C-alpha cells in the first residue's frame, strides 16, 4: 500500500461517513519499505489537487515523518526539494504491514502483504 | 462505391490540393469482406484516377496514404455479401492502437499474472478506449480481480486503482507457483509500473474511498456469478453474527484480530449495479465515464434490465453474443445539473436479472 493511498481511504463503516474523525485513519505498528520509482514532478503536481493536505501531514506523523510543512506551501510547482520529498513519501513509501484505526468507531483494519483489508465483520457491514 | 465517387467528385479539389504533388499510396481495407484479388483491388484504386494526383506512387513510407474502407455484412451462408454495405474514402491521419499490435501484446497468456476469470485483452482495451482513459486520470475498477481493465487503463495513461472482495486475487500467485506474481508485476512487464496506483481489499457496497475523492473514470466487469460468485460482507446467519460480535480470543475481540476472516454472503447483480451507478454519479466529474459489462439471457426483456441514474446518460450499449446469452458494454457519461435523466433502480425495473440461475439452468 502506497502512502498516497492513505490519503484516499476512510473507515468503511457506513455510520462513520458523517464523522470527520473517520478520515484519515490512524496508522500504527507499520512496517515500511521504500520502492524506487522514477521522479515525475508533473505527476506529483497533478496529484496535489486530489490530496487532502491535513490528512497527509497527520499520516506522515503517524509514520514518524514530521518534516512535511503543516500548511500546504504556495508555488509547490517551483519547489523541487519539496516535490522530491513528496515523491519519496507518496509514491515510494510502501506500508507492507500495519494497522489502521478509525478514530470515530475504533474499528481496526490491517495491511497484510502490502494490501489494505477493508472487509467488515457482519455486525458492521450492511 | 458509386455514391462514394459521386460524393468525392463534388469536393475532391479542396481535399487533394495540399497533397497533389507528394508521394502517396492507396489502400483498400475491408471489414468482414473476403480478401480481394490484386486485380480487384487495382480496379478499385484505378477508379479514383480522376483525382489527378501528380505525386510519385511509393508503397513504403509514402507521405500520404489514401484509403478506401469497405464494410460487408455476412449472409445466411456465412459468406460476406458480394457488395459492401458501406464505403468510405479518406486520407489517413492516424491509426488506432490496434495497428501497433497492442491486442497481441496484451494477450492474457503473455502476462506474468492472470487467472481463470481474467477478462480478455481486446475487449478490456476497447472498454478503456470507450471510457476515454487518458494521461493523468484517476481510473478505478471496483471489481479488479486479476486486473485486465486496470492494465489496459494503464496502457492509455490512467493512474489506476482497483479493489476486490477477494484478497487472494489481489495477493497473486497461482497454485503450485513458486515465484508469486501479482497485478503490479503485469504493469512492470509492460513498462507501465508508474501507472499502477494500488489495489485494496474491499467490499464495494461498504466502500473505504473517501466521499470527496474525484475518480475520473470507472471501468469494470462486475462478477456475474458464473465462475466468481457475487458476494458482499456479512452473513445470512444472524446468530453467528451475534456470536462473532462478542467473541473474545485471548481477551481480545475476535473480529479485531489480524487473523479474523470476514464472512461473505451472496448478493444479487441488480443490487450491485444500482450501487455502482449511485457510486459513479457521486464520484465522477462532469463528462467522466462509467463503463461496465452486463450479462443477460437472450430471451429476457433486456432494455428493462438496464439500470439508469438521473445524473448519468447512457450513451452506448454494445453487445457481444454467446449461445443463448449475451453481455453488453454499457457506457454512461456523468452530466451536469442541467441534465435530467430518470433513475431506474431494481425496484422500478421490477424484473430481476437472475443471470446466474438462468445460466446454470441452461437458459431454459
Which key features would you list for this structure?
heterodimer; A: 126 residues; alpha+beta; N-terminal domain of TfIIb; four-stranded antiparallel β-sheet; 28% helix; 21% strand; B: 364 residues; alpha/beta; THUMP fold; Rossmann fold; seven-stranded mixed β-sheet; three-stranded mixed β-sheet; 12 helices; 14 strands; 26% helix; 22% strand; elongated
Explain this structure.
The complex is a heterodimer of chains A (126) and B (364). Chain A contains four helices and four strands; from the N terminus they run αβαααβββ. In chain A, strand 3 (108-112) and strand 4 (115-117) form a beta hairpin. Helix content of chain A is 28%, strand content 21%. Chain B has two domains: 2-94, 2-Layer Sandwich (THUMP fold); 102-360, Rossmann fold, CATH 3.40.50.150. Helices cover 26% and strands 22% of the residues of chain B. A seven-stranded mixed β-sheet of chain B has the order 6-5-4-7-12-14-13. Chain B has a three-stranded mixed β-sheet with strand order 1-2-3, covered by helices on one side. In chain B, helix 4 (121-130) crosses helix 5. The mean pLDDT of chain B is 90. The A-B interface holds A 1-2, 4-5, 8-14, 17, 23, 37-38, 40, 43, 46, 50, 52, 107-110, 112-113, 115-123, 125-126 and B 136, 138, 159, 161, 163, 165, 167, 170-171, 193-194, 197-203, 206-211, 213-214, 232-235, 240-242, 244-245, 255-256, 258, 260, 262-263.
Amino acid at each position: 500500500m502506497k502512502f498516497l493511498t492513505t490519503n484516499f481511504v476512510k473507515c468503511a463503516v457506513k455510520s462513520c461517513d458523517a464523522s470527520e474523525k473517520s478520515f484519515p485513519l490512524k496508522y500504527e505498528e507499520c512496517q515500511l519499505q521504500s520502492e524506487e520509482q522514477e521522479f515525475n514532478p508533473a505527476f506529483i503536481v497533478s496529484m496535489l489537487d486530489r490530496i487532502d493536505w491535513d490528512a497527509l501531514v497527520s499520516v506522515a506523523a503517524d509514520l514518524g515523518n514530521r518534516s512535511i510543512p503543516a500548511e500546504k506551501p504556495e508555488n509547490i510547482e517551483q519547489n523541487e526539494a519539496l516535490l522530491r520529498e513528496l515523491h519519496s513519501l507518496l509514491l515510494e513509501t510502501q506500508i507492507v504491514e500495519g494497522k489502521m484505526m478509525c478514530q470515530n468507531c475504533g474499528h481496526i483494519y490491517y495491511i497484510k502483504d502490502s494490501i489494505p483489508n477493508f472487509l467488515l465483520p457482519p455486525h458492521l457491514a450492511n | 462505391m458509386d455514391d462514394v465517387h459521386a460524393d468525392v467528385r463534388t469536393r475532391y479539389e479542396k481535399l487533394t490540393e495540399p497533397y497533389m504533388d507528394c508521394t502517396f499510396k492507396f489502400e483498400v481495407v475491408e471489414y468482414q469482406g473476403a480478401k480481394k484479388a490484386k486485380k480487384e483491388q487495382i480496379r478499385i484504386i484505378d477508379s479514383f484516377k480522376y483525382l489527378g494526383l501528380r505525386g510519385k506512387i511509393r508503397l513504403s513510407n509514402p507521405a500520404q496514404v489514401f484509403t478506401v474502407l469497405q464494410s460487408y455484412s455476412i449472409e445466411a451462408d456465412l459468406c460476406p455479401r458480394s457488395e459492401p454495405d458501406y464505403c468510405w474514402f479518406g486520407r489517413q491521419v492516424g491509426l488506432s492502437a490496434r495497428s501497433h499490435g497492442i491486442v497481441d501484446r496484451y494477450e492474457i497468456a503473455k502476462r506474468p499474472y492472470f487467472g481463470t476469470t481474467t477478462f480478455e485483452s481486446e475487449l478490456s482495451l476497447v472498454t478503456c478506449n470507450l471510457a476515454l482513459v487518458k494521461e493523468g486520470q484517476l481510473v478505478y475498477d471496483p471489481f479488479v480481480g486479476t486486473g485486465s481493465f486496470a492494465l489496459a487503463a494503464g496502457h492509455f495513461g490512467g493512474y489506476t486503482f482497483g479493489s476486490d472482495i477477494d484478497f487472494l486475487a489481489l495477493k497473486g500467485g497461482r497454485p503450485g507457483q513458486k515465484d508469486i506474481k501479482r497485478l503490479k508485476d503485469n504493469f512492470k512487464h509492460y513498462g507501465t509500473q508508474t501507472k499502477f496506483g494500488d489495489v485494496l481489499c474491499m467490499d464495494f457496497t461498504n466502500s473505504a474511498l473517501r466521499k470527496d475523492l474525484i475518480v475520473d473514470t470507472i471501468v469494470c466487469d462486475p462478477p456475474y456469478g458464473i465462475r466468481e460468485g457475487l458476494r458482499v460482507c456479512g452473513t445470512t446467519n444472524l446468530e453467528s453474527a451475534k456470536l462473532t460480535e462478542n467473541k473474545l480470543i485471548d481477551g481480545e475481540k475476535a473480529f479485531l484480530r489480524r487473523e479474523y476472516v470476514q464472512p461473505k454472503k451472496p448478493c444479487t447483480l441488480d443490487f450491485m449495479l444500482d450501487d455502482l451507478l449511485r457510486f459513479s454519479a457521486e464520484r465522477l466529474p462532469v463528462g467522466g465515464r462509467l463503463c461496465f459489462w452486463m450479462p443477460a439471457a437472450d430471451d429476457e426483456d433486456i432494455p428493462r434490465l438496464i439500470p439508469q441514474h438521473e445524473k448519468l446518460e447512457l450513451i452506448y450499449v454494445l453487445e457481444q453474443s454467446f449461445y443463448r446469452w449475451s453481455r453488453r458494454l454499457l457506457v454512461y457519461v456523468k452530466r451536469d445539473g442541467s441534465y435530467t435523466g430518470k433513475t431506474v433502480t431494481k425496484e422500478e425495473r421490477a424484473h430481476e436479472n437472475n443471470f446466474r440461475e438462468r445460466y446454470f439452468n441452461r437458459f431454459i
